[in-house]
Automatic annotation (TrEMBL):
It is an enzyme of class 4 (lyase). It holds the Pfam family MoaC. NCBIfam families: moaC, PRK09364.1. GO terms for biological process: Mo-molybdopterin cofactor biosynthetic process. It comes from the Eukaryota. The lineage of its organism: Eukaryota, Haptista, Haptophyta, Prymnesiophyceae, Prymnesiales. SUPFAM superfamilies: Molybdenum cofactor biosynthesis protein C, MoaC. Keywords: Lyase, Molybdenum cofactor biosynthesis. It comes from Prymnesium parvum (Toxic golden alga). It catalyses: (8S)-3',8-cyclo-7,8-dihydroguanosine 5'-triphosphate = cyclic pyranopterin phosphate + diphosphate. Pathway: Cofactor biosynthesis; molybdopterin biosynthesis. This is cyclic pyranopterin monophosphate synthase.
Length: 203
């Protein structure tokens, strides 16, 4: 019997099956809530200066009602020690830097529509520009305000005034330093119009 068992062929062992990697599961794409993600494309605001075809266009303000509008903007000019010393009226060959820059900012606000192609010409009621020197930081802090009664806001006029005042400081002090930096050009506040009141956190 033992010899008979030895003569019988042995059955091959069953092959060991290795499990195949599981197919990746396709998870459903999560739905984005505009309320939870206000910056998502679902809630992205439409650019007002583009028409239905995506072409640049001037906003039609005909249907809008005139209302009181105000805006404040700011800019900072970092001069460095040598250029800051040139702010002294007797030290600058072009005259009083801050006085000239203030007038330049006011003039620029009145010509904003000539500089920005899609900006409406406005009948400004008031423009003011103030410049304050910071001797510790060697900086000039600029604030501009504009107001009008009209169908569109005066944010660009205030921003233009602050920007051109800063550029004027740069121009009048560049002989003392080429490393002058203009920074932090920003809107501080606006009132009036359909969007209501806006105030920057740092305002």
């Amino acid at each position: 019997m033992a010899s008979l068992l030895r003569a019988l062929p042995r059955r091959a062992a069953a092959p060991q099956l290795t499990p195949s990697p599981a197919a990746p599961r396709l998870l459903p794409r999560p739905r984005v809530s505009p309320a939870a993600h206000p910056s998502s494309s679902l809630s992205a605001p439409r650019l007002s200066h583009l028409d239905a075809r995506g072409d640049a266009a001037m906003v039609d303000t005909t249907p809008k009602h005139s209302s009181a509008r105000t805006a404040r903007a700011a800019a900072t000019v970092r001069l460095g020690a040598a250029a800051f010393a040139a702010l002294d009226e007797t030290a600058n060959a072009k005259g009083s830097v801050l006085v000239v820059a203030r007038i330049a900012g006011i003039m620029a606000a009145k010509r904003t529509a000539e500089l920005l192609p899609l900006c409406h010409p406005l009948s400004l009621s008031h423009v003011a520009v103030t410049l304050r020197g910071d001797a510790e930081r060697h900086e000039v802090h600029i604030e501009a305000s504009a107001s009008c009664v009209g169908a569109t806001g005066v944010e660009m006029e205030a921003l233009t005034a602050a920007s051109v005042a800063a550029l004027t400081v740069y121009d009048m002090c560049k002989a003392a330093s080429k490393a002058i930096v203009i920074s932090d050009v920003r809107l501080l506040e606006k009132t009036g119009g359909r969007s209501g009141v806006y105030r920057a956190e740092s305002a």
